[in-house]
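Incident review: delayed structure delivery

Summary: a single-chain prediction request sat in the queue longer than the usual turnaround. Root cause was a stuck worker, restarted by the on-call engineer. No data loss occurred. The affected request and its eventual output are reproduced below so the record is complete for anyone auditing the incident later.

Affected input:
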Amino acid sequence: MILLAAAFFVFSSPVLAQSPLPAAANFSLNQENQTLRLETQEFETLYRTDMVPSTCYRSEVQGSTTQCHTEYDHQCHTEYQQQCGYRNYPVCQTVPRNVCYPQEECQTIMDNVCNSHGCTPVPRRVCHTENRCTTQYDNVCHNEPRYECQTVPQTLCQDVPRQACIQVPNVVQVPYSCMKPVQVPIGQRMKLDTIADVSVKFANFSEAGALSETLSAKLVDGKVILNASGATKSYLYQVDSENQSNQMISATEKAVTAQFTLRATSIQKLNQFASLSLSQGKIASDQIEFSLSATPEVPFKGHLKLLQNRTFGGHLVVVDNDFKSNAIVTEGGVSHLMLNNFGVNSLRSKHHEATLSLSLDMDALNKGLLNPDALPLLNSNNIETQFEGNP
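Output delivered after worker restart:
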């Protein structure tokens, strides 16, 4: 086993002796295209298993120990107590009451009615009302207190302590001689060798020119990462496009291809955006027209708030939305913002008010940004104008 380990170590030594390419490298944007080659090597340690003398332990019971603790029994008993007090009892009696009610009595009386032929008896009904009275009896009750006593049972409980003991066995660890396996390192072998060919293209080299800032590329877990943390804060550096692919050449070799297109934007040019001015605002039936003092050359966005004046009910909000810079079309020095971008086909012929503001598009500037620490140097002020009129 020792001879085999030595032979394997001799075989592994040339792998360790190789000088790999760097895992990270710096580059500068002093030319339009640059290429880098990066490499990372991962090794794994080889072991053999040896049995060596050692001390093992087994558990044995040697006697026992008495352990006691206090437990509580819940005991209850009944006691009788005499409770006295006043208690109300109803007392009733019969009380006579005279009740009267009217009663009509009628009788028939014969009247003689006479004429030239003689007299004839005619009956006549005569009625009168008399009060009839009777005696009724009511049961009238009231409460009278009586003092009385009674014996009431009451349950009384308490926790009574008692001592409970158990026998706990004494378990001890007894040493004895034994053989244990140990892992002994015998060398290393290549687990994965990753080589990355990196191509960096400067998208606006003709515009920005050669830059002296130093950027870095690093190969981490089979992926190339660009960094501009060491660059000066005169430009924003962004990744315009990125394409990375990898392929296993063998069980221990991987090839990575990474292509980047970078763009550098002057912070001074970005800050000049805030010095632009909006003027000559006009409201048309299907668009907003205005003039810019200069054509912006940096990513920007805008916001339009368009209100319709109404005689009753206040202002009607027609548009209150953001828009991207590509929604603006400039011809002959006049910029046009079509209202159909906001779902409005045509305005009614009424008085309108508009507020138009433009600002740097921070979402676009943050996309693929390599040096975000330069963002605080940007002037984030908006340029704004207000105007009104009839379409």
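Verification: Residues 329 and 336 are 5 Å apart (CA to CA).
Action items: add queue-age alerting; document worker restart procedure.
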